[in-house]
Amino acid sequence: MEAAPRVENLFDFRRLPTDGLILTLLLLYAPFGICLMLIRIFIGIHVFLVSSALPDNFFRRVIVRAMCSVLGMIVSQSDPKQRDKNVKTYMANHVTQFDHNVLSFLAPCHTPLLEGRAGFVSWARGYMELGWIESRTRLAETLRGYNSLEGERTLLLFPEDEMTNGKVGLLKFSSWAFSINSTIQPVVLTVKRPFIAVSVVESSWLAELLWMFFIPFTIYQVRWLPSMSLMEGESEEEFAVRVQEHLAMELGIVSTHHTKSDKLEYLKRMKHVAPPETSSGTSSRPSGARPRTFLPGLSISSLSAEDIRIAGMAKQVKEVLPHIPTNVIKMDLVSTKCVDTTITNLLEGRVEFSPEEVSASPSSYSLSNTPHAVPHNLAAAPKVPKAAPAPKTVSKMTFEKSPVDRHLSLQDRKDALYAYAKRRYIDKHGLPTESKESLDQEH
Q1: Contacts of 66 (CB under 8 A, 6+ apart)
Q2: Which residues are bridge partners to 188 per DSSP?
Q3: What is the pLDDT of residue 305?
Q4: 186, 32 in Cβ contact below 8 A?
Q5: Taken in order 375, 380, 386, 391, is the CA torsion positive or negative?
Q6: Rounded distance, CA 300 to CA 291, Å?
Q7: pLDDT tens-digit profile of 17-41?
Q8: Of 222, 225, 223, residue with least CA distance to 101
Q9: Do 333 and 313 touch, CB atoms closer than 8 A?
Q10: What would the 3-class secondary structure string for the chain be?
Q11: Range scoring the smallest mean pLDDT among 330-339, 368-377, 401-410
Q12: What is the pTM assigned to this prediction?
């Protein structure tokens, strides 16, 4: 059985091609593309004015579709007679920022605004503003009321709730979209474009529009599938899965369980993970340079203030728990924002990790970038017996039978780890002897 694709495989992070020949052709085309983009911006303003002035009918859709062809948006559909005019809801996969505009050229339909700020921009982009963006339940109720009105346009929904590259798989369909109407018509959408990706993660709709003006053409192909209805005894979740699998089969890709939240979590996690070292054991970055994220296409070239703060806290946790990988520490700090809470999570087993091998020599721990001041969480370390644990016993943990014994054992380990890290910090930075003697007297 073929393994399901990872969530990052469903998206494009790089705009430009990696193939040397294609990249060279793109560079040669660039002067012409820039001139074409400037001309199309001027034409695009007129397209917007015409579409706003004309009444919403078949004649307007034909004119706007023809004018958009000049802008490089080529739209085609296979067998338009397959479109069911009695259906009140279309369900389509989501590939670009302009999918709803493309489908509105072919059929009278409305797409509700699901995220972002309502106002002139969302109206100009062709979204229907109904409110209730934060509540899918209230939005679904409003859409059911809209669907019950006679003469209103068909609803166009994208149950993935997020764009994908359309090459590997579909995100899991949201069941709320299938609670609006018991009969829907699936729509297959494929997008092709020369030289560059059709959509890139974290790219704004304006940037995507300018790239579309720059490239000679972008081809949208629409295919109407037979209508599907909720079967007797079938839940809305099961109906969503059935439609998702049917669309995936027609697209020649797989149906996944990944969601929009998985994508956001992946991006959040990757922004705080440093790129791997080279095989020679040395970093390819110049000395002193700030690390870059390894997600190509994301405009993150240096660490933000939040990244620096997370890195500083991670160093403090690493001093106390040297056997825990740094990336595991950083991932937990992103959610806790607290050194003490992260240490507690790691000691109590709330975070899974594979321990690293720790050298017995205290000199093996690097603190060269840590400010010459005792961290606040170590300075306030509670008193423990003078016999501080050796580094090898720091990571050794036992599981007591009694809950009280387990709590006391955990507290003893935490106190011992704090005291050991504090002593090693003073030795490392050569602080005054009085400080060390006062520390010994405390313990």
Answers
A1: none
A2: 223
A3: 64
A4: no
A5: negative
A6: 10
A7: 989 999 999 999 999 999 999 999 9
A8: 222
A9: yes
A10: CCCCCCHHHHCCCCCCCCCHHHHHHHHHHHHHHHHHHHHHHHHHHHHHHHHHHCCCCHHHHHHHHHHHHHCCEEEEEECHHHCCCCCCEEEECCCCCCHHHHHHHHCCEEEECCCCCCCHHHHHCCEECCCCCCCHHHHHHHHHHHHCCCCCCEEEECCCCCCCCCCCEECCCCHHHHHCCCEEEEEEEEEECCCCCCCCCCCCHHHHHHHHHHCCCEEEEEEECCCEECCCCCCHHHHHHHHHHHHHHHHCCEECCCCHHHHHHHHHHHCCCCCCCCCCCCCCCCCCCCCCCCCCCCCCCCCCHHHHHHHHHHHHHHHHCCCCCHHHHHHHHHHHCCHHHHHHHHHCCCCCCCCCCCCCCHHHCCCCCCCCCCCHHHHCCCCCCCCCCCHHHHCCCCCCCCHHHHHHHHHHHHHHHHHHHHHHHHHHHCCCHHHHHHHHHHC
A11: 368-377
A12: 0.63
Q: How confident is the model at residue 57 (pLDDT cuts 50, 70, 90)?
A: confident
Strand partners, 170: 255
The residue type of 40 is: R
Q: Torsion angle, CA of 95/98/102/103, rounded to 10 degrees?
A: 70
Cα separation, 330 vs 346, in Å, equals 12
Burial grade of 404 (CB within 10 A; 0-12, 13-18, 19 or more): exposed
Rounded CA-CA distance 240/246 in Å is 10
Say if residues 72 and 217 touch (Cβ distance below 8 Å): yes
